[in-house]
Amino acid sequence: GEQHPDTGTTYGSMGRVHHDLGDFNTALQLYRKALQIRLATVGDQHHDTAAVYAFIGVTHDNRGEHDRAMQMYFKALQIMLTTLSLELKRTPPSKRDDDSALSACEKALK
Q: Cβ of 81: how many Cβ atoms within 10 Å?
């Protein structure tokens, strides 16, 4: 159906093709549709949602809209930092990798 994660993935894939063809306006429309579906199906704190924000950022960057690109990249980063932090909290300490990379990213945001 229209509101299924796989449908969002397909819209994102179509956006990527248009992006690669240089049709950034259509790419953005498709990425926004993918984002709408991701937000409805997996929420705003999911790595798939972050990926769509990053794709939107790349497209804005290629259009020369660097401020908008940075906004999208920042949203993607915030989601990834949150989801990585949650994953670390759920992982037993004996199985955790060194979380210094996460700390470095969090410090970079300050």
A: 16
Q: Residue 6's closest CA among 38, 50, 53?
A: 38
Contact between residue 69 and residue 57 where contact means Cβ atoms under 8 Å apart: yes
Segment 22-60, tens digit of pLDDT: 999 999 999 999 999 999 999 999 999 999 999 999 999
d(CA 39, CA 11): 14
Whole-prediction pTM? 0.77
As given in the structure block, the two tokens for residue 53 are 């924000």
How far apart are the C-alpha atoms of 98 and 88, rounded to whole Å? 10
Which residues, 6 or more positions from 88, have their beta carbon under 8 angstroms from its beta carbon? 96, 99, 102
Classify each residue of 42-71 as buried b or exposed e, where b means 16 or more C-beta atoms within 10 Å of its C-beta: eeeebebbbbbbbbbbbbbbeeebeebbee
Q: Which two tokens stand for residue 93?
A: 């300490």
Amino acid at 25: N
